[in-house]
Design goal:
- The protein is an alpha+beta fold and about 290 residues long.
- About 30% of the residues lie in helices and about 20% in strands.
- A hairpin with a 2-residue loop joins strand 6 and strand 7.
């Protein structure tokens, strides 16, 4: 008879400040990990010996105009009165996973989840040209989300670094939107996700377009080809579908148990059309239920 497997119970430490958390993570090295919502970290088959919980650090909480603490939950983002320029982030938070997860999953955790191609907030933040503040033993610095993702997920960042906050600007005339496609509906990982941000002039013509595609490749990324296809248009359905085709022509899709790569490319134009429509949605008439179609 095979003896039962007993997993070691990790320690949990609860620092009271960012500096204390950074110092402790540096001391622990690979045997420690920062703990926020835990919705992704807890899935690891090899958990660290010590979790450094960030929950008592007040500095990591709070939602201000265009700035969010790293412990801001998806539910808090979904409930925040975001301007049209930041709508993509609200839609991504509101339609991700299901209520139980949205209540605990955090903004910082979504950015730091390695190997999580379906992270909903990441393409939205890329399209919004967001930046982050990071605390390390050497001090604090700011970096764009794109650069942060390349370093954090490429294992070149300081393992003791703590993401403090995320910031995005909201100029007048800018609109953004987000859409995702799942197998059966809300509560599932996205097969494809698209975020679009653009400055619209008085005639509704788009410029300064930023597009990010998630879940198709191993990590969400900007798509310049789709941005070029949308520039100078009114973000109408035909233009959005053309942008989706442009994206499909350059992306290298992944296969997994939920969908083959070819299917992800096939549905891109439709998801682009929905993301563009979300950009143009009037908040006064928005009756989003919080679940993905």
């Amino acid at each position: 008879m095979t003896a039962p497997t007993h997993l070691a119970r990790p320690r949990v430490e609860v620092p009271g400040s960012v500096d204390e958390a950074v110092r402790r993570l540096a001391e622990l090295g690979p045997d420690g990990a920062a703990l926020a919502g835990g919705t992704w970290l807890m899935r690891s088959p090899t958990p660290p010996g010590t979790f450094v919980s960030l929950h008592r650090i007040a500095e990591l909480r709070g939602v201000a105009a265009g700035t969010w603490g790293a412990l801001t939950t998806h539910a808090e983002l979904a409930a925040a009165p975001l301007p049209p320029a930041l709508r993509a982030l609200g839609t991504a938070a509101r339609t991700s996973a299901f209520p139980q997860v949205r209540n605990v999953a955090t903004l910082g955790g979504n950015l730091n989840a390695r190997g999580f191609a379906e992270a909903d907030l990441v393409p939205a933040l890329l399209a919004l040209d967001a930046g982050v503040e990071v605390a390390t033993a050497a001090g604090r610095h700011r970096i764009g989300v794109d650069g942060y993702l390349r370093s954090a997920h490429g294992d070149t960042t300081d393992p003791a670094a703590v993401l403090v906050s995320v910031t995005a600007s909201a100029p007048a005339g800018r609109r953004s939107g987000y859409a995702r496609l799942t197998v059966r509906g809300g509560g599932e990982y996205a097969l494809v996700s698209v975020a679009i941000s653009a400055d619209l002039d008085e005639a509704g013509v788009a410029s300064a377009v930023r597009v990010a595609v998630g879940s198709v490749e191993a990590r969400a990324r900007r798509c310049p080809e789709a941005e070029a296809a949308l520039a100078g248009t009114t973000l109408d359905e035909a233009a959005a579908r053309a942008a989706g085709l442009a994206a499909a022509a350059v992306l290298t899709p992944r296969d997994d148990l939920l969908a083959p790569g070819w299917y992800r490319l096939e549905v891109l134009p439709a998801v682009f059309a929905r993301a563009a429509a979300d950009c143009l949605t009037d908040p006064a008439t928005d009756h989003d239920t919080g679940e993905a179609p």
